[in-house]
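Researcher: Please translate sequence to structure tokens.
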Amino acid sequence: MGAAAPTIGLATALATAAVFAVSALRTPTLWIERPLALWALVWLGLLAVASLRRERPAKPTRADAPMPPMPPGRPICAPVGGPQDASAEGGLRSRLGGLLVGLAIGLLGFAVCARLGWSTLGLSPGMHDEWSYLFQAKTFLLGRFWLPSQNAIPGLFDQIHVLNEGHFASRYFPGTGLWLAPFVALGISYPGQWLAAGLAAFLIHDTGRTLGGPRVGLVAGALVALSPGVAELCNALVAHAPTLLGLALFLAGFARARATATPARARFGWGLAAGVGLALAMLCRPLTAAAVGLPFGLLLVGEALTSLRVAAQPHAADPGPRARSAWTRAPLAARLLIATGLPLAAGLTFLAAHDHAITGSVWKTPYGLYNDLYTPRHVYGFANGTRGDAVEAPKRHVDYDRWARNLTWPGALRNGRARLKYSLRASVGTIPFAVGLIALTGALAAKRPPRRDDPREDPRAGAGPDPARGFWIACIGAIAVLHLAHLPYWFVGIHAYHYVFESIPLYALVVAGGVGAVEALGRRTHRPRLGPAFSLLALAPALWQWLPVDGPLQTGSGRALRQGSSFAPSRRQHQRFLDLVDARVEDRPALVLVKQPPRNFHLDYVVNEPTLDGPVLYGRFDPTRMKLEVIAEAFPDRALYLFDERSGRLERVPLDPAGRGPVSHPGPT
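Model: Translation complete:
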């Protein structure tokens, strides 16, 4: 065993060098940023020193000495099955310390988001996706799924990502609106997203701590809290923040429910918590929730079937007097499947009611209906452009619809490569993830299979002596499934990674799992500095990129963070429009008609309250099929203004003395 630690240091160095060399040769734009490679070289030197320095054990032990009994309240075994520190989780003091560290990490995650978004806190949203989610939250606050449309002038109040066919409703799934609603009511929409990021970091810390002890939890939680991608997308009113929170709750509950340290009476409750988290994620982003949950569901199904098969054997151990019912005799995995499935069933029922209320069918989502009506080329799957062009869509948003390119396999593979590349850069970094994956998978491959003669391994008594092993495998599988599930979509994503944004906590757990594997190896070989040295690779550059410094060691993401949120320009532009309206629209109530140039659909000024009764309404003006006098007659109680987006001019449409319509040539106010 003594030679194992230097060997892993050498193997890690060679693997890192190989990844860097392949990247450098593959494309001039390196997958691995050069500053991060410099950090890796420093780390590899520290790892080599830690590998070579071996401390003499205080009390020599025989190689064949029996393993001491597991301490109560210990974490799940480390990925390599090494013994755990008895104080890792045992005792009130240790649990309180873990809670305090988790709270500190959660506050760090909140603070990191606030640091990036504080300067733009008073600005309006910029993306039309954000306005649609705000529309949804305000609709829910009225106790409604939808409100009646106002179609006196067809298309006048058509809003991007909002249905306007009798039912005036957001196209999106309801989870994000439910999460945002209380914060919208309090006027703190963006801090609500920051809170979701902080809670997610707290829960990922708890997941890592449950799986591998304090250092694994610290690394996993800190990587989520310090992730530039989390800070970026949690400063937008989109679905990613509540989805991240839901999946973090799912992972934490799943790990707790299967932990040998969790009391039997509490496991079902943790399974319910996992199901609640997955249901929240499903109500926000169903494909993402299904992709992440699938490997964990297969893990439970496999364990349940294995337990039933073993229990049916004639020599299976008798369950004893404690098993008084079929429920208590059922395998833990089967009970956890039920516990997780109950909240999912409730979430699906709510989703079906939401869809039926808006579309009239439990099988047709508002998202799908919007694509059918306005953007048929934006559908999921290959040849989306060909299929979309063949669809009769009388309300097709031509410019926006044509933005979607036809997806082929080469394009899908390019998108998949870009999503992997930029999601790693926006989270843990390519080198830390690659090295952590190597260390974790190596430990998983070296793990000895459970022995059937060990009484602790009775499948009816729990998930076995090392339930963490299945969790780590499912975690790696979830990353792969999430990326594969989004291959058949034509758009690479915001910043080339937002469709796989929820892989960030999984990346963090994999890196932390590698830390846990090396830490366990260091304990067995009496090299306690091996784990801390390995942790430095991930934590040092993750923290460094948030410092207001530049130079050769600063990463590209760190330099981008110094410039603020990438959504700030669009938010400032939309705020300038609102400020212009406040300054120039003197007569109220008013209707501001927006004349939009072609192919400008990423920033849209036509946004209204769901009730369409605000002091200023915004309408979409198409001079080829709309007449000002008809609009004026339809809204006689509102002053009419015209905003030309191309020129940036906002003009009053003067009425004739009789008030029957506008004069021929409206002049500026």
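Researcher: Any highlights?
Model: DSSP finds 24 helices and seven strands in the chain.
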